[in-house]
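Write out this protein's structure.
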Amino acid sequence: MYSSSPAAAPLVRDPLHAPVAHLVRGGVTEGIHYGSVVVLDADGRAGFQLGDIEAAFYPRSALKPVQAVAMVRAGLPLDGDLLSLAAASHSGEERHLAGARRILELAGLAEDDLRNVPDLPFDPVVRDTWVREGRRPSRLAQNCSGKHAAMLYTCELNGWSPDDYLDPAHPLQQAVAETVEDLTGQRIAQVTVDGCGAPLFAVSLHGLARALARLTTAAPGTPEARVADAMREHAEMASGSGRDVAALMRAVPGLLAKDGFEGVQVAALPDGRTVAVKIADGANRARIPVAAAALVRAGVDAELLTEFAGEQLLGGGVPVGRVRPVRALEALTEPACA
């Protein structure tokens, strides 16, 4: 199913995205979201694709489970909620901050050793409370602090320098790059810097789907399975209590899901059936309904996914339409429009 040596890097080109979701208001298509979608069968083949699944793109935080696998391979001993946090784009809730502190304490380090950018909590309710209390942006509150704390811990365990752990030439980031190529099955096309300051690797949407499938089909006890188990069992640590990606994992038994900025979503079932989505304009409102529709195409019972069918559009406080996936994706609901 998977090659032992990575294929060539995907081409860096303008992706040939296709319509993936319509903004329907009052029976009229008011707007169109373009993007790309791939659905892998249990045997690893692309059973469905829409748009451009082979062009190089940046998975953003959807790559964090792969980064966590790299750290576990390098000796990171975390499990459970702390390992889930290491792969998280967290909401900045107190449990997330406390977990990041615990990882730093295990490493014998402190918040000042983190090199991610200071920020306010990602969750709007938590952020508003934070601001009302007069609290300032912090590295712990930034949504990638769990990953950064785990990176520092991995460095300490291996005797690697903690000061420059974000340098792409650092042994930690070289180990991450090697794992990215191993799990995606392709060479990295390009390296840049993610929003948090960590190296970000360009692969294809197809490659991202393959990587997550490798996690959910891995043998028990392997680094891949440990990361998948931790994220599924502690979905709120990998995201937040009010986040759609955690709700998606709770709704579909055994599902591993991870989102990323700029409209990226990937989700894999225990047998390897996997969907990956990239919304071209980065619109968050199209990400989940398109992914949910793709999961139905992968064989998930549509009844489990009705709450993810797409947000309603209001007119005068009354529903007059919704964001709905294109018909090729077998949309979950008919438009609620007049």
